[in-house]
Automatic annotation (TrEMBL):
This is TetR/AcrR family transcriptional regulator. Keywords: DNA-binding, Transcription, Transcription regulation. The keyword Transcription regulation applies. It comes from Streptomyces odorifer. GO terms for molecular function: DNA-binding transcription factor activity; transcription cis-regulatory region binding. Residues 36-55 bind DNA. Residues 13-73 form the HTH tetR-type domain. InterPro entries: Homeodomain-like_sf, HTH-type_TetR-like_transc_reg, HTH_TetR. It comes from the Bacteria.
Amino acid sequence: MPEPTGRRARKKAATRQKIAETALRLFLERGYEAVGIREVAAEADVAVTTLFSHFPAKEALVFAEDADFARRLIEAVTDEAPGAPLVPALRREVEALVRHCSSDEAAPVYHLIDTTPALREYEAAMRQRHADALATALTGTRAGSPTACRALATFTVDAYALARDADEPSAALDELFAMIEAAWAAGGPARP
């Protein structure tokens, strides 16, 4: 996440991080369903309204870096030089996220997600939001037709989920992005 500038922004970011870390610790210790919002707020020493000003729902507490991933995907498209290939830039971002999410320290969090229906549903909706935002960014670069851009965005975001769950995430990414690259080359025009 980019370092916030200004005292107020830094304080807000620190409060958000404290809330997310507290919630995750409580969820991992006692189970997602056993912990209420009021408990998280009390443990983080913030008001419930402050918690909700940072996180719109209880599920969002587990996915604190959601917006950062979406931003990074969009910047992979919008910050590349004109004419630079899109798929390798997207792969770099997905690969970084898969590496982070498949680390030993992330395993308990993904076990929590995988075993909690509300979190699985939230994650699926989050992936759809990411795919929609990425498709909009791709279409805005005039990289291809809206249909081709939507397909590339959906496949890119789904590649993350498939690779994260694979026994060999790196090999899965190789295979998935080879297919994505071939499909994009066949259907997507060169980037202007």
